[in-house]
Amino acid sequence: MISRGRRHRVETVTNVLDDSEIERLLVVMAHPDDVDFGAAGTVATWTDAGIEVVYLMITDGDAGGFDDAFPRAEMAGLRRDEQRAAAKCVGVTDVRFLGYPDGRLEATLDLRRDIARVIRQVRPDRMLIPSPERNFERIAPSHPDHRAAGAAALDAVYPDARNPYAFPELLKDEGLEAWTVREVWMTSAPPNPNHHVDVTETFERKLNALRSHASQTAHLGDGLTDMVRGWLTANALELGLPEGRLAETFQVVPTP
């Protein structure tokens, strides 16, 4: 057990699927850049291992940005382009968008159906989603859109995507057979992280992905590197990893 202040984190998951067992992986996030802040280093390790990774962004991030002079009507298109560029930095070429409004996301039946549709299309062994729970120690990652995306994605995993009688139009009209996702990883500072990935070797690619989101990160300048390195260093120290290592943390949920 490694402690920092009053916090204690224990590695408890022993049945995480080995990457060699994973053929396809679906990432579902609320906004462009969410996956890159939370897990781009890990995504790079997956694509390096030959895993096919697909990104599904629920919104276009049209409420983001820091430049008041930039035309608001053009923000969605810019952020889609930024996410595609960021994805390439970590080996992902299939990036999809649902186009829900940024900042107003709710875990509706329509959203569950739309995520279940993509699950049945991609047929992933593992999914990466935001945590549906609020973290009171780190409130920023618990954006309402993140929590809504996580809740809808988890409901789409169970029961929607695997139940052939849920959203019957997906099978009847679109020919999409039911699919069971074997494992879900949650990011966005889940309250009970139980697994980590050492991303020291892929850190620069993570930074390049984050820099691709210039509308969101350019104002940070060189501070972006220090900020992200600080987060990942703190994770590694809390986990008891050797000095100089960097880690991303997750809550893994078996879902067979």
From TrEMBL:
<keyword id="KW-0862">Zinc</keyword>
<protein>
    <submittedName>
        <fullName>PIG-L family deacetylase</fullName>
    </submittedName>
</protein>
<dbReference type="Pfam" id="PF02585">
    <property type="entry name" value="PIG-L"/>
</dbReference>
<dbReference type="InterPro" id="IPR024078">
    <property type="entry name" value="LmbE-like_dom_sf"/>
</dbReference>
<dbReference type="InterPro" id="IPR003737">
    <property type="entry name" value="GlcNAc_PI_deacetylase-related"/>
</dbReference>
